[in-house]
Design a protein that fits this description.
Order of helices and strands of chain A: HHHEHEEEEH
Distance between the termini of chain A: 74 Å
Low-confidence stretches of chain A: 16-22
Mean pLDDT of chain B: 87
Strand order of the largest sheet of chain B: 1-6-5-4-2-3
CATH superfamily of chain A: ABC-type transport auxiliary lipoprotein component
Helix content of chain B: 25-40%
Strand content of chain B: 25-35%
Radius of gyration of chain A: 20 Å
Number of helices of chain B: 3
Structural class of chain B: alpha/beta
Number of domains of chain B: 1
Number of helices of chain A: 5
Oligomer: heterodimer
CATH topology of chain B: Double Stranded RNA Binding Domain
Chain lengths: 179, 144
């Protein structure tokens, strides 16, 4: 009886819980994938991608990039650009690409959000463990009020833009290598 | 009405507890091509307005058997690695270190050989010494 009488309040409390609980969302892997990436070279080898340094996004946290989403975005970009012949899982690839997120600097307040990102890219030949590339890739991404009014959405878009730019620069550096 | 208020309070508590009011994160990773045990001399590049974090990092690295120097200038030649860091502070009754990121870099290329990050919000705050210890220990745990 009491519950029935106060159903609107209960529903409002539940809605508030859900809204608060769902306010932050992780960077989206599709939005982190560079579109129309063209590379100068296509390597006739298979590639294994591994990622690290990412973090899951807690609901009261701000948008983060997870290892799994970063890996998927890089793999998708490699496939789309045909940078390597195939992507493999496990340890059977001709080359191993390690991408570690080492810094993700996010603003707390503001109208225009700019996110700075640094990643460490290393490419290793599996057969002899020789290192073909070691590179620090620093990028930024910006989202303005015209992109999204809600701050959490704007921040997520800035994180996605920084990651997209980062993947693009990293893969272009890989494309310039003579393997 | 009392039951309703209790229920609302419970929901509020669940919201706070489950959505990360106390956020704890501690991660570290080492590049597969890096060998931390071969890095015997390091230079901690001090942030100009930092008055103590660089010292804590240097002391912790010394406890790992590393010869450490510090300064705000470019790293001297001959060091095996340069250590950079970003410490973020927050106010909640008192100032506390919210987040610390430490990078161990190749002095020639600036490539991050190893990275550690700890993030603790106010309710689970750690002292600066504990933050530094956690990050450096996690980096070395991840080393080959």
């Amino acid at each position: 009886m009491i519950v029935a009488a106060h159903r609107p309040y209960l529903l409002a409390a539940l809605a508030l819980t859900l809204i608060l609980g769902g306010c932050a969302s992780p960077a989206d892997r599709a939005a982190m994938t560079p579109q129309n990436l063209t590379v100068s070279k296509h390597h006739p080898y298979s590639l294994r991608v591994q990622t690290g340094g990412g973090a899951e996004t807690g609901a009261m946290d701000s948008s983060n990039v997870s290892d799994a989403d970063l890996k998927a975005a890089i793999e998708d970009a490699v496939v789309r650009s045909k940078l390597f012949t195939t992507i493999v899982q496990g340890s059977n690839g001709d080359y191993e690409l390690s991408v570690r997120l080492t810094s993700l600097s996010k603003p707390v307040f503001g109208g225009t959000f700019t996110v700075d990102m640094e990643t460490a890219w290393s490419l290793t030949k599996t057969s002899d463990r020789s290192v073909a590339l070691r590179k620090s890739v620093k990028t930024s991404g910006t989202a303005t009020m015209s992109d999204a009014f809600a701050g959490i959405t704007r921040l997520r878009m800035a994180v996605e833009a920084a990651t997209r730019n980062n993947i693009e620069q990293g893969l272009k550096a890989v494309a310039e290598l003579k393997l | 009405m009392k039951r309703l208020l209790k229920l609302a309070a419970l929901l509020g508590l669940v919201t706070v507890l489950t959505t990360g009011c106390a956020v704890n994160r501690a991660t570290a990773n080492v590049d597969p091509s890096a060998n931390l045990s071969s890095l015997k001399t390091m230079y901690v590049k001090r942030i100009a307005d930092d008055d103590n974090t660089y010292n804590l990092i240097a002391d912790k690295l010394r406890s790992k058997g590393v010869t450490v120097s510090t300064g705000t200038e470019a790293a001297p030649s001959g060091v095996d690695a340069v250590v950079t860091y970003i410490d973020k502070w927050m106010w909640d009754m008192t100032m506390y270190m919210l987040e610390l990121t430490i990078n161990i870099r190749d002095p020639k290329t600036d490539f991050p050989l190893a990275t550690g990050n700890s993030f603790h919000t106010s309710l689970t705050r750690l002292s600066p010494t504990e933050m530094v210890n956690e990050v450096v220990d996690n980096i070395y745990k991840g080393a080959k």
